[in-house]
Amino acid sequence: MSLVSMAEILRDAQKGGYAIGAFNCNNMEIVQAIVAAAEAEKSPVIVQASQGAMRYAGIEYIAAMTCLAAEKASVPVALHLDHGTSFAQVMNCVRNNFTSVMIDGSQLSLEDNIALTKKVVEAVRPLGISVEAELGKIGGTEDDISVSAEDALFTDPNEAEIFVRETQVDALAVAIGTAHGQYKGVPKLDFDRLEEIRKRVDIPIVLHGSSGVPDEDIRKAISLGVSKVNIDTNIREAFMNAARKVIAEHPNEIDPRKILGPAREATTEIIREKIRLFGSSGKA
């Protein structure tokens, strides 16, 4: 089927009390793994690309590969810009058939974040493209965005209510204690804050930095209103661990297919596990 809007599948997830996995891609094998996992689990899925991924693979390649994978798939697939930081970048994704964009104005003041997000919503909603925004600063590093532990700010529930009312975004990424990248310890999520945000906003909530968060905490976050869960680091770990294993066992191997093939299979398996955790298996 053709690519679908992220808002469409997130609304169903919110009503059904489950979450949709949003998995970052960097190359052909990872795109294939994401869609293969979704097909195997009969789950809707979000393929997302960061600024770094698009610099590496090229936005045209990312879009073309995902469009082809979606056309061949029997499950709904959305193509999403992860952590877009400018209006120009958003519009470039729109021109390349993305069905959803994230505009990350979390480094700005509340007023400026609202203004930038409104501009994006007004430009892309008539085209049927959904918009995710972020309020609060999620710690860690995600390609071009780096937030130190000292600068990480949890989302204020009152500001979340104002932000959603003013911008009319389709989904809101919140900062409740997760971080991008690999954790040095076990993250402690502020579930009371999440519950208060849920009371004040009636749109899908997004959890970034979810790799490494204990399964029971993911389940609880979903029960409190999270409808989209982002996974990137776990994908990289599975992919590279499998590739390293092949190279260690066969140091003279020169066929990239024999290295990247097992890496793709390992990535598919970790994504299937996440889909089952999020409760979206069988929801396509």
Mean pLDDT comes to 92
Percentage of β-strand residues? 15-25%
**From the alpha-carbon coordinates, what is the Rg to the nearest angstrom?**
18 Å
Structural class: alpha/beta
The spatial strand order of the largest sheet comes to 1-2-3-4-5-8-9-10
- Per CATH, the architecture is Alpha-Beta Barrel
CATH topology: TIM Barrel
Sketch the topology as an H/E string, one letter per element. HEHEHHEHEHEEEHEHEHEHH
State the end-to-end CA separation: 12 Å
User: Quick one: biggest sheet?
Assistant: 8 strands, parallel, barrel
Backbone shape:
globular
Helix content: 40-55%
Q: Helix tally? A: 11
Low-pLDDT stretches are 145-151
The CATH class: Alpha Beta
- When the domains are counted, the total is 1
Number of strands: 10
Instruction: Write the CATH homologous superfamily.
Output: Aldolase class I
